[in-house]
Amino acid sequence: MTVRTAGPADLNAFVASAAALFAEDGGTRDPHMDQSWPARHGHEYYGAAIADPDVLCLVAVDGDEVVGHLLGRLKGPNPVRPSVVGAELESVRVADDHRGSGVGGELNAAFVAWAGERGVTEVTVHAFASNTAAIRFYESHGYVPGSLQLRLPVG
Ligand SMILES: CC(C)(COP(=O)(O)OP(=O)(O)OC[C@H]1O[C@@H](n2cnc3c(N)ncnc32)[C@H](O)[C@@H]1OP(=O)(O)O)[C@@H](O)C(=O)NCCC(=O)NCCS
Fold first, then answer.
1. How does pLDDT run across 86-113, given as a tens digit for each residue?
2. What is the pLDDT of residue 146?
3. Which member of 5, 70, 72, 92 has the lowest number of beta carbons within 10 Å of its beta carbon?
4. d(CA 68, CA 12)
5. PANTHER family annotated for this entry (predicted)?
6. In this structure, which residue's CA is closest to atom 16 in ligand 1?
7. DSSP E strands: which ranges in the chain?
8. Pairing of strands 65-74, 55-62
9. How far is the CA of 38 from the centre of ligand 1 (A)?
10. 101 CB under 6 A from ligand 1?
11. Among 3.40.630.30, 2.160.10.10, 3.30.300.30, 3.30.450.20, what is the CATH number of 2-140?
12. Mean pLDDT across 5-14
């Protein structure tokens, strides 16, 4: 298994992995999540991400098979937290049959190294509160809980 930067030839597999993440994560945890979004907009969105120097798109590859992906991006300055140079881990997934063997850890480590080389001082990630496995994964890599979003359905 190797982790490498995604190129245009990886776009279909990258979109497929992102769509699988939508289905498994948001699709089971947020009734408002549009699971058809990756099929309709994924090629445009992730194609632009692969070409953007301020975005890191990684694939984990086992032979010819893409078994995981990560997308992380540099964030713009935040005037109310001026001392922070931020990056966001926007999307990470490892195929079910490859989990628990360090692939996610390698993807995260490559992202954190990429961010550090660009002067980033803080990496953030959002997770559904019910995704306890992902939260444990992040915590095992040094992330600590930050803000908590609360929702109130109205009407
Ligand atoms: C979260 C995810 C990317 C982790 O990838 P992975 O390859 O399984 O993770 P690793 O094998 O590198 O695990 C690294 C650490 O995380 C912990 N961890 C990973 N999965 C875990 C789980 N299901 N439950 C508890 N801890 C877990 C392990 O204990 C391990 O810690 P250790 O190295 O101290 O033993 C993967 O489980 C996944 O794709 N999940 C579904 C998609 C998802 O939820 N993505 C995140 C959305 S916010």
1. 999 999 999 999 999 999 999 999 999 9
2. 96
3. 5
4. 13
5. AMINOALKYLPHOSPHONATE N-ACETYLTRANSFERASE-RELATED, AMINOALKYLPHOSPHONATE N-ACETYLTRANSFERASE-RELATED-RELATED
6. 137
7. 2-5, 55-62, 65-74, 86-94, 122-125
8. antiparallel
9. 23
10. yes
11. 3.40.630.30
12. 98
